[in-house]
Amino acid sequence: MIRECNIDDIDLINQLGLLVNKNFISVYNIKDILDRDYECIYIYEENNTILGFIHIEKHFEVIDLINIAVSESSRRKGIASKLIQYVLDTIDHENFLLEVNSNNDSAIELYRKFNFKEINIRKKYYDDGDAIVMERRKL
Ligand SMILES: CC(C)(COP(=O)(O)OP(=O)(O)OC[C@H]1O[C@@H](n2cnc3c(N)ncnc32)[C@H](O)[C@@H]1OP(=O)(O)O)[C@@H](O)C(=O)NCCC(=O)NCCS
Q: With a 6 A CB cut-off, is 30 part of the ligand 1 pocket?
């Protein structure tokens, strides 16, 4: 099931966040995120175990995807897809934007599957690569 993250989930979100960014815990303060009304973290859980999360920001009609991660042993089972579809279905928006490391083939494939298009490249945006900016306009 998918539900909103709450304060009791912070430690597990921090663990999963390390799969996205080795500095996740110093860059993202989950408690502060939960306190902001324009940010949201949704988690995917099965049998009371958190297997993935998606963190988004909402600015007027634009959703920014900040992070998405799925535990390594649960990948390729459609969990990230369910999280993205949940955001698409539940949050009113016109545009959905994200940045992804150009080396991150699996994430790029995931976003293409949802019809995100590459609209820009930010050179050396990450320590280890360029960022591809991708956009999905609501049909
Ligand atoms: C990217 C990530 C979130 C995908 O999660 P997932 O639950 O495995 O994704 P899904 O099962 O929903 O996959 C959906 C589609 O994405 C693509 N995809 C996902 N993993 C892939 C891989 N390793 N290689 C190629 N394509 C892949 C495929 O098109 C897949 O569809 P298919 O299984 O029908 O072929 C996961 O690999 C992850 O947590 N990676 C580390 C964190 C990260 O890089 N996050 C993104 C940047 S914020």
A: no
Query: Does residue 31 have its Cβ closer than 6 Å to ligand 1?
Result: no
Query: C-alpha angle with apex 30: 87 to 134, nearest 5 degrees?
Result: 40
Alpha-carbon gap, residue 64 to 62, rounded angstroms: 6
Q: What is the band of 112 on the pLDDT scale with cuts at 50, 70, 90?
A: very high
pTM of the model: 0.97
Dig out the tokens for 5 from the structure.
Answer: 């993250």
- 103 close to ligand 1 (CB < 6 Angstrom): no
H or E element at residue 34: helix 30-35
Domains (ranges, CATH) in the chain?
1-54+67-80 (3.40.630.30)
